[in-house]
Amino acid sequence: MQQIQIYDTTLRDGTQSEGFNLSANDKVRVAQKLDDLGVAFIEGGWPGSNPKDVEFFERARDMQWKHALITAFGSTCRVKGGPEDDANIKALLDSKTPVCTIFGKTWTLHVKEVLLTTNDDNLRIIEQSVAYLKANGKRVIYDAEHFFDGYKADSAYALETLKAAVRGGAETVVLCDTNGGTLPWEVESIVRELKPALAHPFGIHTHNDGDCAVINSLMAVREGAIQVQGTINGVGERCGNANLISIMADLELKMGYQCLPAGKLEHLYDLSHFVAEVANITPDEHLPFVGKSAFAHKGGVHVAAMRRSAQSYQHVEPEKVGNKMRVVVSDLSGRGNLLSKAEEHGVEVDGTEVVPVLNEIKELESRGFSFEAAEASVTIMLKRQEYGYKPPFELIDFFVNVEHRQGRGIFAEAMVKVRVQGEVLHTAAEGNGPVNALDLALRKALVGYYPQIANFHLSDYKVRILDSDHGTEAITRVLIDTRNTTSRWSTVGAGTNIIEASWRALADSVEYGLMVAH
Predict the structure, then answer these.
(1) Do residues 24 and 52 touch, judged by C-beta distance below 8 A?
(2) 269, part of any domain
(3) From the CB of residue 276, how many other CB atoms can be counted at a distance below 10 Å?
(4) 509 and 439 housed in the same domain
(5) Within a domain: residue 318?
(6) Are residues 13 and 37 in the same domain?
(7) What domain range is 508 assigned to?
(8) Distances (CA, A) of 39 to 9, 192, 320
(9) pTM score, two decimals?
(10) Which of 481, 462, 479, 473 is CA-nearest to residue 497?
(11) Residues 242 and 370 in one domain
(12) Cα–Cα distance for residue pair 458/436, rounded to 1 Å
């Protein structure tokens, strides 16, 4: 299989994304993960532009890298001067990376109106900058900025800029769709026309402003590109860069190329979520291949077919990229959804026993419930249909009182009466709010029978108003996340009374936790 070089620029181009920030330590951690994955190049940043990048290169030079070459990024030298006295070129050399990537102008508009120079002088600084870095022992990659726009404006001159870089000694020239507006057939025709005249290894660097970054990259590879530049999860300035996650999966699983060491593709899911976690952003769970929803099936017809053949509604095996297939339960579900969910959680029910649960889910969702993110509630509903199942407790009554007292402020008190193993328990507790008081009262009643409940912790509590036009009479949906030392689960409640909705979610949460804790 032909090898395609994966050039990651998450640490440089990716950090130009609004809201995506990495410290120097974050950059080191992400770089180590990329190296473990087996990418060919990791672009660490622009040395000299900020203290974080200076620190990263200082730390990187003393580290052992198994697969990747650390790369420093910069520009060609200034127009009025040469590379030997250029601060940017000096910073590249001082970074002591084995590879330097520099960009230069391809588009005559930029040459004349941004650099304020002549076409010939632009060719000079490209060739001299590459040659100077090469003479100082660096491998050099040349990024042709705005290449496709430049080629459409003046194809002959755009080609000359590439040839100047080749004369200087660039090992690869990279065609950049910097504005991100080129369409796939334009990439195909331009690259096909360019190749015979260039006759040199080339790569592709695309942005996603036209939502074509991934397909434009793949199109260039089909036409002979040996290197693909991009970022993890497609982060980058404006609408982002080409998403290397999708590109690597497509290259290996669909196009017959090799871009990573054998067996590494299955780490894509973990890498995608690791990068989001380090940057402290919420993962996009609808990303192709690695989003939690990438192989989630909700429609009843789809799930019924999936139970007979996993290929019927999946284009690849999710395990090949480290993901897994999921079945989502909602009012769009059929029996297959619930049977799959029961099998997933070890609940023994048959096709007839899930019908009442299915009907209940559809009826509850019409009243404001949503079970997509509350799988524990679904599991408990199924468990209650299982022959011989006895719930660990049964609610008889509850009472909640919220008061304001002088000198004490607001406080809440809850009373819970439950039946546990044939005994009726009547307990009360105070809390900082009504839900907290209910939680504490229920725990107080149950902990003597089920000590494991002491390890249950409410980790999140979300409230959503569903029909805000009804004001304070609106239906409220409550989603509770609970965890213990090994698991995390979610339950849901809904209704016009927020306390009742919270109680349902809370009671389901405790019942599910006691089930899995066994």
Answers:
(1) yes
(2) no
(3) 20
(4) yes
(5) yes
(6) yes
(7) 394-517
(8) 11, 27, 17
(9) 0.75
(10) 473
(11) no
(12) 10
Q: Are residues 323 and 196 in the same domain?
A: no
**Secondary structure class of 447 (helix, strand, coil):** coil
Counted domains in the chain: 3
CATH number at residue 255: 3.20.20.70
In this structure, the strands spanning 457-465 and 476-483 are antiparallel
| Cα separation, 66 vs 376, whole angstroms | 42
Q: How far is CA 315 from the centre of its chain?
A: 20
Q: Is residue 273 in some structural domain? A: no
Q: What average pLDDT values come out for the chain (518 residues) when binned by 10 residues?
A: 94 94 93 97 92 94 96 95 94 96 96 94 97 98 98 97 98 98 98 97 98 98 98 97 98 97 96 92 91 73 57 83 73 50 52 57 56 67 75 90 80 91 92 89 92 89 73 76 86 82 88 78
Type of residue at 437:
A
Both tokens of residue 291?
Answer: 């989003």
Are 44 and 52 a contacting pair, CB within 8 Å? Answer: no
Q: Do residues 81 and 149 share a domain? A: yes
CB within 8 A of 189, min separation 6: which ones?
none
32 & 126 share domain: yes
What would the pLDDT profile of 328-351 be if each residue is shown by its tens digit?
554 444 445 545 544 554 545 555
Instruction: Point out the domain boundary residue: 217, 234, 261.
Output: 261
How far CA 130 is from CA of 101, 107, 145, 291, in Å, comes to 9, 19, 15, 40
Query: How deeply is 334 buried, as exposed, middle or buried, from its count of CB atoms within 10 A (0-12, 13-18, 19+)?
Result: middle
CB neighbour list of residue 292: distance below 8 Å, 6 or more residues apart: 283, 285, 323, 326
DSSP helix/strand/coil, 169: coil
Residue closest to 303 by CA, chosen among 274, 265, 330, 272:
330
Residue with tokens 């009012």: 331
The answer on 346 and 467 residing in a single domain is no
Structure tokens that stand for 288 in this block: 């192709």
Q: Are residues 231 and 308 in the same domain?
A: no
Buried b (16+ CB within 10 A) or exposed e, 471-484: eeeebbbbbbbbeb
Q: With 0-12 CB in 10 A as exposed, 13-18 as middle and 19+ as buried, what is 224?
A: middle
Q: Which CATH number covers residue 462?
A: 3.30.160.270
Q: pLDDT per residue over 191-247, tens digit each?
A: 999 999 999 999 999 999 999 999 999 999 999 999 999 999 999 999 999 999 999
